[in-house]
Amino acid sequence: MISEHVRATLINIVGLENYEDSPAERLVYSYDATPQFQSMPDAVISPRHTKDVSDILKICSEHRVPIVPRGSGTNLCAGTCPTQGGIVMLFKHMQQILEIDEENLTVTLQPGVITLEMIEAVEAKGLFYPPDPSSMKISTIGGNINENSGGLRGLKYGVTRDYVIGLEIVLPNGDIIRTGGKLAKDVAGYDLTRLFIGSEGTLGVITEATLKLIPMPETKKTILALYQDIEAAAKSVSTIIANKIIPTTLEFLDQPTLVVVEDFARIGLPTNVKAVLLIEQDGPLQVVERDIQKIAELCKSEHAVSVEVAQSDEHAEALRTARRSALSALARLKPTTILEDATVPRSEIAKMVQAISDIAEKYDVKICTFGHAGDGNLHPTCPTDVRDQEEIHRVEQAFAEIFEKSIELGGTITGEHGVGEMKAPYLELKLGKEGIAAMQAIKQSFDPYNIMNPGKIFAKNERKRVVVTS
Amino acid sequence: MISEHVRATLINIVGLENYEDSPAERLVYSYDATPQFQSMPDAVISPRHTKDVSDILKICSEHRVPIVPRGSGTNLCAGTCPTQGGIVMLFKHMQQILEIDEENLTVTLQPGVITLEMIEAVEAKGLFYPPDPSSMKISTIGGNINENSGGLRGLKYGVTRDYVIGLEIVLPNGDIIRTGGKLAKDVAGYDLTRLFIGSEGTLGVITEATLKLIPMPETKKTILALYQDIEAAAKSVSTIIANKIIPTTLEFLDQPTLVVVEDFARIGLPTNVKAVLLIEQDGPLQVVERDIQKIAELCKSEHAVSVEVAQSDEHAEALRTARRSALSALARLKPTTILEDATVPRSEIAKMVQAISDIAEKYDVKICTFGHAGDGNLHPTCPTDVRDQEEIHRVEQAFAEIFEKSIELGGTITGEHGVGEMKAPYLELKLGKEGIAAMQAIKQSFDPYNIMNPGKIFAKNERKRVVVTS
After folding, report:
1. Which part of chain A has CATH 3.30.70.2190?
2. Each residue of B172-214: pLDDT tens digit?
3. Among A285, A466, B135, B143, whose CB has the most other CB atoms within 10 angstroms?
4. Which UniProt keywords apply (chains A, B) (predicted)?
């Protein structure tokens, strides 16, 4: 509950038009893209600039009001669900690309900029921002930074973390700090830039970012390798890399995913094979052609039943788009879709795919698996129905076992989605008590009153969730 | 002072042969590569394994004994000088390369491994670890990680931070934690891996690391571009990159540095020009040849008086070796050599070089400038003599003004050397009071008794230095 005094103070900061607490508005921001999580915020606030954010955080600190910074809410870990109430902070007034610097190869922008909009703006200047989360058409850069988003080009180019070189941050006490800059190198003290990347809104609010850009690759080519044996597909992944070729993209889709994606996208994907690899290479033409030819040979040597090079940019784009639509396509199957991102060392992909299949059978649940195989980052996805409590229980048991298996194989509970509230119960599997204690010490030192996105990463629920169906 | 009880306990942990407190041994570890800093430790300890480190840290925490982890002491920020006494920790028993994993492209090793030894071991398998600090022949990986070391290949490939994907760390309370793994992606909580990279031994002790490797580039070529105008050389740097070519290496040396390096290396470097750029590109042959040709054209268009492609691997290696020897060569000029690493956005290199020259003139000190121009990371270097207090005072004023200028140009006080004790007084220029407070909060949360390398990054001297000449 927000007191009348706090409400008036916040309205005084941002103006009446930027503070909403009608039931309708609150309902809109009571959930994000994560199934099974919903909780009403007390209000929704839209700061106009950094100073507003600072003033808001001072008030929230003083009065212990939770603040949940939110981009487009596309995360899949309940990272922006206001599970302990409080105020959802939106960035609709902070959506400017401030500068594209062609000499230093940087873009400086506000957190509310849509990822794809920035990518298109820099590509118009022949520059390239590689991280391309599947949600990039609607996700914001602020959200990408807070979640350290991955994407389809991570194998060769890395993730969001590898491109953020400077931040303006408002700390919970209202202090405004700047980290890094247009600098290739900076070792002036601890790496606060990377500490905030992936911190899921639990340490402060990012109000500006400077991103590193690279020259646009000259060309790219796409191939689709088909397999009647999942293990052969998985083996191809490590064979390609062990042969010292790092493709831009190395995606895996199993048969159940293929069937659903083809039904959604209708681009002629094969549905009669057990698995496909979607592989892309970019760079100078000669190198791309040579690599693609070698990749095709390696896939054949690992028993691909067919290897097809996309014959046009349109065809390649259709394949990529189909892959990006996997979640949307799977979401059509059942009322609820639970998508995970257990991640293992690349060499363990075959074992992990097999384990997922065994676990699905054991708990009698349907799990479709696709993902960034080159990164060892799989997305086992379960179409289910939260109203069927008995099935949901089995689904949750299956995913718990999947997380355990990925840890056993030297992996992690999340490769790119974040912990949020959804995976908080599993964090100890990866970090141990000591690792969690170290992270909690950081949280405590930045946010002693636990106002920043409380309940995420560590804490257990204190407020009962409103369970809804999608 | 270490009490007899603590001494006996520590000897009990590591064995008498691994605990040294003779005056001779203490003297050896009373300084590092940084001029003007010396302070006697109370003892020197050599743990045999992680468990020893944990036991030592528990004792030191309990009894508030400072611990200074030290690799080869090649840092240039007084980062391993035991300025508040206590115990210097060596890693001579932790020098194993534990595994080179050719499927996941990783190397796992102990902190005491010499950088070059690891690089040669992975290159023997066709793999590549890009960070190549000039000290790599003697520096250790543990030291590289604690300082987030750069090198000559940073422009294209990044720095140590970009290659460390997993750590085993002993916290000051003795807890052993593991971060990351053989994983391309991991977002399970805060990025402790990167928090520890560059933390200068102030948060805990790194006892094992997993590093990412990449395929060895197929070939490389080297060119030397000569200029009679420093600004033209600096302008060439941004022109090359604005033309969307990212060379592996883009080094700058001014005339005073050239003269000294040639006198040292005797490889026929030109000494009658105002500046040179040493530029390398690596990758597939066609791409390298094309890039090198384009770079040569761009340098000429920016008024290089000569552009020469190294005609053999031996010649290229001689040029690189000469560049790496710059500090050693400059150190022959005067009893004391102060080498700094002010860093600016690449576009500001010309202004920064000019400013350094103006400042040197203003304070009547000799400053030779060289460095990683592509990274905006310059090494203004002053040959001086600490016994000449009047000159040293002018040198310190000059460097203070250089740091201020680099901040004014959007830069930082250190690009790759770290803060240590040497640059602690300047940290606020970059971070502001609020940024320092945020970092101190982290330090306090990990190390409440301030046992880990106290006096570094933040604090002021509490113990008087013993000033010595080199």
Report:
1. 219-327
2. 999 999 999 999 999 999 999 999 999 999 999 999 999 999 9
3. B143
4. FAD, Flavoprotein, Oxidoreductase
